[in-house]
Amino acid sequence: MRIILVNPFDETVKEAVYGGDYREIYDLIECRTFTVLSIDENNDLYLDDEGLLIEGEQKYFDYKGLGIFAGKGLIMAHDNEGESIATTLDLTQVIPLIKFMPEGYKQEPYMEFRAWQ
Prior knowledge:
Blueprint: E1 2-7, E2 12-17, H1 23-28, E3 34-38, E4 43-48, E5 60-63, E6 68-70, E7 73-78, E8 84-85, H2 91-94, E9 98-100
Antiparallel strand pairs: 1-2, 1-7, 3-4, 4-7, 5-6, 5-9, 7-8
């Protein structure tokens, strides 16, 4: 199925092919564990869940002002049962929504705990 891969390391946004096995996601975005962010009613952005914790050189991007994300991202859609399907977005729609952070940009992880009230 057709997906869109965001690569902040070489600052590219391109189409790729996903075979449907969730284990491929680990290879596509080069991570050990991933998280999923809904970006519209049909499409999701898959991200490295540990991206902010990586020591050494890391690259970042922003998608549509939703936040700064560390590492590669992958866009695909889901059906009514939650199964992954080809993205409904076109590459020409996505490219203007991506902003790559400049060389040297660093974002520190932040976590806050609040007491239940």
